[in-house]
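Example 3.2
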Amino acid sequence: MAKVAVGDLLSPQHAIAVLEYHRQWLVWTYNFIHWPYFIEECQVYWSEGIVKEKAWVALYYAMLCVGLHHMSTDQRIQLGVPTESGLTERLYRQCLSSLSDAQYVGVHSLRSVQAICLLVLCAHDFDGSNNLTVLLSSAIRIAQALGIHRLGPDALTSKSPEDMLQREISKSIWMFLTTQDWFLIPFSSAYSISPRHCTTPLPSNCNGIAGFSGQIEPFDPVRSDQPTHMSFLLAMFKVSEVYRSFFDETITLSESQSKERNLRTLYEQVLKADAELKAIHRSESRTTQPRYDLRDPQMSHWLQRQRYHFTISVAHKRLTVHHAFFLKSLVDNWYNYTKVACIACARTILTELRSISGDGPSQNLWTITAHAVSASVILLLAMLLSEDDGSCDDAVASRQLVCDSLEILRRSTKSSSMTTRGIDLIELLLTKSNAASLTSRALDVKEIAAYLAADKSRSFPAAMTESVGQFDPVDLDEWMHSLGMDVP
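Structure, written as tokens:
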């Protein structure tokens, strides 16, 4: 036990409102907190300032930060929660400070790991991407030190409810860390967690962890076609496995092969990964995309949001798999499937965004805005650089989709440099696509870099000093990274 000062960023009354919103809307995006126990700990903290361990305070601020970050202004007003600017970021900073106060690097705690995992849901919007990658690496090492990566097979003999709960929480945390680690592969060309070193099984497809299960045995898995708070996470783990497998297959390509042969071999792996992602989307749609009437008041809030996020997430992952060949596909018909797939995925993302334009909580989910920016850029580059007639029906429809999405992004309650740069880039590319000189099909990337570089000390890859016609399409990922818009 530890006596700590009770934070004053949010009063207990306001914190309860934020946590209740969080419980209703967001549990399915991570699902490794047992809410009945957590709320009990909150009550003791508010009344007595006592916590079981200092790392719990970091978890508390992470829970508040994530909840408040995903609330619209109208929802805050409705619930009587402060609407002051910068409050969410102060909660984020307080979480980081609390981790430091808990000496999380030396004093290993599952609470610290949970707090860091929760920051995945918001850190990018506070320009915390670099901090987050380091924190996630630390969380992985802490989790390994605590042994949750080697829990072994589920025992056939019965355990106490408390032991079963702790085991399922540990399994869920480890799956979450693994998924995030593998999703970072395209941006780091490396991963930390090898499945050969782990014996921890996947968590059960149930609602028992959060404490919402109505079953007599809360951790018994339900039917595979029945959605739970774990369904989305299990599906995204399968998606991340495709990322890891794709990386393992392509990193071993022989450097002795010619560049062209390497490209063809790599492209075969791209097509294989794309097919696997499509298959996952089809098979998991039963549990993550039930086509219920989302206006039905009886529908659970979390289930209403899973379909949007799963569709957008898988479409974005397919874009990521293809992006090294996207620009090349605009000028080389051998890679035409990439062009078709990327345009289709981009349209899917923006169509889903437009379908939830009146639903603030859905738009605020995690990386929706970042994925919308990527999709808009893909469609605009296709219009600018493709040899197709820009006046065709498909191009007109794509332009309208981008324009509609731009308006949605402008109205977004999220404020981050990533979103701001994305809006600037979309506006500039739209202007370029309307220019009379469009027939030249030349795009001055150096001009774009200069226009978007708010920080004059920001460095850009050499590829950006040439027109798109001259730089290697494989550098597209480096280009997007330099603009700060590469969110896994």
